[in-house]
Amino acid sequence: MDGSHITGGAATAPFYLPQGDECDVFAAAAAHRLPVLLKGPTGCGKTRFVAHMAAKLGRPLYTVACHDDLSAADLIGRYLLKGGETVWVDGPLTRAVREGAICYLDEVVEARKDVTVVLHPLTDDRRILPIDRTGEELEAHPDFLLVASYNPGYQNILKTLKPSTRQRFIGVEFTFPRPEHEIPVVARESGLAEERVKPLVRLANKLRAMKGQDLEEGVSTRLVVYAATLIAGGMGVDRAIRTAMIEPLSDDADVKAGLRDLVTAVF
Ligand code: ADP
């Protein structure tokens, strides 16, 4: 299993509230066939953004959640036994290259090293995908677009992109949305009124300010949406915050107690 899924065609675009000029930049990159690297913390809207842009551009989207066992063969394809016969089955990257789709490699640094080797000839002006197993050398469809994301916040020297790879992409930086963006996003996603979302976003920003002290990563917009969804569904604010905005951040009892004090200060 490559863990990929396909969405799209020219369906209505999923809701995405732009933070800046990222939609224009992406559209320009797509027009000029330039690979795009989305940098930013987890849960800040990168995946939603790609889904939105793919729908707006009318291109199918293959999304692959990369993990440390994901190999080049998972992306390219492999021979499988089907009814006693060995048949070649394209992986998501090969399908995207053939069809002119967007291939989105989420958290690309997690993947095995052989994945980057495959990406190199696809991300320069050759735009080819050599398939060693079949002897094919695929020329990418004009509409094929490679998009990758990574989280520069994880301080892991082994899990960073080498310059030789990253300098093949244009870069778009994502940060957590400013309150004037995050409040309407969370309200829309959860169905909770903006007035009730405001203190959650204020709390989220206080928690984010603790990144690097007690927390490895600040609370994501995704978690704020979870908390708001629970509250909109009738859960008490305290419990919703504990389950959606505190427990996911830390396992340390002292740190969690500190975070709960912060909640009392905000509410
Ligand atoms: P990432 O890919 O960066 O980990 P996601 O794209 O999955 O994060 O975002 C998590 C959730 O946050 C989305 O499902 C969506 O509800 C919400 N979200 C964040 N930013 C936006 C935005 N600008 N517009 C709409 N929804 C957003």
TrEMBL record:
Keywords: ATP-binding, Nucleotide-binding
InterPro entries listed in its UniProt record: ATPase_dyneun-rel_AAA, CbbQ/NirQ/NorQ/GpvN, CbbQ_C, P-loop_NTPase
Start and end residues of each ATPase dynein-related AAA domain: 35-169
Pfam families (alphabetical): AAA_5 (PF07728), CbbQ_C (PF08406)
Coiled coil: none
Top-level division of the source organism's lineage: Bacteria
Segments forming domain CbbQ/NirQ/NorQ C-terminal: 182-266
Molecular function per GO: ATP binding; ATP hydrolysis activity
The family this protein is said to belong to: Belongs to the CbbQ/NirQ/NorQ/GpvN family.
Protein name: CbbQ/NirQ/NorQ/GpvN family protein
